[in-house]
């Protein structure tokens, strides 16, 4: 893509664009750019040091991670009782009878929840009425 743009550009801005595009490429991927230059220009002592550093990081990072955190991460960071047991987890009903039983249980739970909400609303309405009555009686005195 960049060579096509360079071919279209002509004049004094061409050199500026070449420099700025090279700087953008170098800043976005510095290690890969240096590795490419090392292969392109031949191996030098600086390039071998870079490759040694990269290889050391690739090999030593997972080893250091396992040394610091350990290899039994499931047992080490496990919170007891976080995941439900097989008895507590949801079992999908497969038979028609199980489906009907689950639907009746869900409808019963919805009815109980609805009754509880109605009682709470009635209690709140009664409390609000009682407060309004007390305020009205205090205002009339």
UniProtKB/TrEMBL annotation:
Residues 123-141 have a biased composition (Low complexity). GO terms for molecular function: unfolded protein binding. Keywords: Membrane, Mitochondrion, Transit peptide, Transmembrane, Transmembrane helix. One of its GO terms (cellular component) is mitochondrial inner membrane. It is found in: Membrane; Mitochondrion membrane. It comes from the Eukaryota. Residues 110-141 are annotated as: Disordered. It is a single-pass membrane protein. GO terms for biological process: mitochondrial respiratory chain complex IV assembly. InterPro entries: Pet100. Residues 110-122 have a biased composition (Basic and acidic residues). Its main location: membrane. Belongs to the PET100 family. This is Mitochondrial cytochrome c oxidase assembly factor. It comes from Penicillium canariense.
């Amino acid at each position: 893509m960049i060579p096509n743009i360079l071919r279209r550009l002509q004049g004094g801005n061409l050199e500026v664009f070449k420099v700025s595009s090279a700087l953008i490429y170098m800043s976005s991927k510095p290690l890969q750019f240096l590795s490419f230059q090392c292969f392109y220009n031949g191996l030098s002592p600086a390039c071998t040091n870079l490759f040694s550093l990269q290889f050391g990081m690739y090999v030593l990072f997972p080893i250091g991670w396992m040394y610091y955190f350990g290899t039994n991460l499931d047992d080490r960071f496990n919170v007891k009782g976080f995941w439900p047991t097989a008895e507590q987890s949801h079992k999908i009903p497969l038979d028609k009878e199980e489906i009907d039983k689950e639907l009746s249980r869900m409808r019963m739970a919805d009815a109980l929840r609805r009754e509880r909400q109605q009682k709470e609303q009635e209690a709140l309405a009664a409390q609000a009425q009682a407060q309004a009555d007390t305020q009205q009686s205090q205002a009339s005195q």
